Amino acid sequence: MAQEPQQTEPSPALTIVVTLLASLLVGKFLAAQTQLIGKFAKLIAVYGVGDLLLLQMRKVARETAASLQTEVPPLVEQVIAEAVAEGSAAGATASAGGPGEPPEAKLPGWFDPFQSHAEMSAQAIRDDLNGKLNQLGYRITRYADDVYQSVAQSGISQVLGDVAKVAQRKAYTDLTSKGVTGFRDSRGRNWSLSAYVEMAVRTSAQRAYNVSHLSRMQSLGIDLFTVTDDGHPCPLCAPWQGKVLSVTPDDRADATIADATAAGLFHANCRHTLVAYFPGVSNIPAPREWTQEDQQRYDNTQQQRAIERDIRAAKQEVAGAYDAEMRATAEAKVRAAQKRMRDFLGMTGLNRNSRREQLDLGNR
Q1: Whole-model pTM above 0.85?
Q2: How far is it, in rounded angstroms, from Cα 54 to Cα 205?
């Protein structure tokens, strides 16, 4: 007896894909950045300022970029493959026939149009993500020259005295606390290394899941959809919770998926997924207006992310310190940022996510 169709929730494994596998990739880049900055500090202490220092800094930067180019593609493959598999599985569960593959799959000679489309989509997403991450290699190698230029001012500092020395240290610590920079997205926005990698990986994994999920549901004859409530909406995607969407214009739908996407749904870092909607069967919450309370909650989460970045930046400054005085100053910044976090959480009631305060996002 066929089970009654229900609105399906996203597979719990999607959270694993997006959070754990994506964080492995982000953590790898952040760990590489921290190690690179630490090596720079040791080289400065050993060689002082000069051509030999620049050569050695460039060498370790090239080695870091080359290592990432070898280690990253297999992780990208795993992220996208898992996202596609989970999207397909969740899409199959949405069928009126119940969990598992559609009955037609058991017939001799049955052709699954989903498979080829999913494979092509996954390959395109995989190639796009690999391309974005490979481009980071240039910025990593260029970072050696940026840091050296800030340190090279120490030669002037020796002539002009303590004031210039303080200025040189400030330039150096500004660079090392920010880490590798210079990343722009298609809209011209600037991102730090950690934010850029996390955005690219999370968005690609979510795209792979959604494309696979949608394709599987369409192959099963499902033509109406809604979006999950992830519990943490933003002003762009909140208006689409509780709305019915379709692939092509449909009188039963509030809008097409393309219209919703153009209006902000599935933006970078968006965690929403499409789920099947069955008229007269599925229960979805009524759309509601974005309130001041919603905005305040959203602003609080963004403020928490900002303090997390401050903590990581201070810890990175510790890793880049090349003398005891700089290290002590940086460690004081870490403690101050951690206190700001405790005070902020006490005021807002948000939960602390210590993993996001680690330089490698807690990945070992």
Answers
A1: no
A2: 38
Q: Provide the phi-psi class of 266: left if phi over 0, else alpha when psi is between -120 and 50, else beta.
A: left
Helix (H) or strand (E) holding 75: helix 51-93
Contact between 308 and 352 under an 8 Å Cβ cutoff? The reply is: no
Distance (Å, whole) CA 249 – CA 242:
18
Angle in degrees, CA 201, 91, 115, rounded to 5: 80
| 279-337 per-position pLDDT tens digit | 888 888 777 778 888 899 989 999 999 999 899 989 988 988 888 888 999 999 999 99
Contact status, residue 121 vs residue 208, Cβ threshold 8 Å:
yes
**What is the β-pairing status of strands 274-276 and 224-227?**
antiparallel
All structural domains of the chain with their residue ranges: 1-222
Token pair listed for 279: 């008229």
Of 304, 339, 336, nearest in space to 317 by CA: 336
Taking the CB of residue 213, how many other CB atoms lie within 10 A of it? Answer: 30
Largest interatomic CA distance in the chain: 88
Helix axes 162-178, 136-152, angle to 10 degrees: 170
Per-residue pLDDT reduced to its tens digit, 17-40: 556 777 788 888 888 888 999 999
Q: How many CA atoms lie within 13 A of 115 on its CB side?
A: 5
